[in-house]
Specification:
alpha/beta, 105 residues
Length: 105
């Protein structure tokens, strides 16, 4: 399951995580985001305990989106030890996202 994080909780949940984190930057009005959303949720369930999967609504959390230079959505950032280690712009099949996550485990 993917957690919803906000500007206020991003540092605690993502940057301070002891395990790799996938961050899905999305918005309600974004068609490709609606395609990626269920995939992100599945990955969250499958990797529970091994990785943290979170979603950031860019409309409600512009500070975090701006901090990481998010200009297009969906954008997925991969964090390890509080640092960005990979990035995926646009909608991609589940296997692409899983392969990038597996590289961080």
């Amino acid at each position: 399951m993917a957690l919803n994080v906000t500007d206020a909780t991003f540092e605690e949940v993502v940057l301070n995580s002891k395990v790799p984190v996938i961050v899905d930057f999305w918005a309600v009005w974004c068609g490709p985001c609606r395609m990626v959303g269920p995939i992100v949720e599945e990955i969250g369930k499958e990797y529970e305990g091994k990785a943290v999967v979170v979603k950031v609504d860019v409309d409600n959390n512009p500070g975090t989106a701006s901090q990481f230079g998010i200009r297009n959505i969906p954008t997925i950032l991969y964090f390890k030890d509080g640092k960005i280690v990979d990035k995926q712009d646009g909608a991609e099949p589940k296997q692409v996202l899983v392969t990038k996550l597996e590289a961080q485990l």
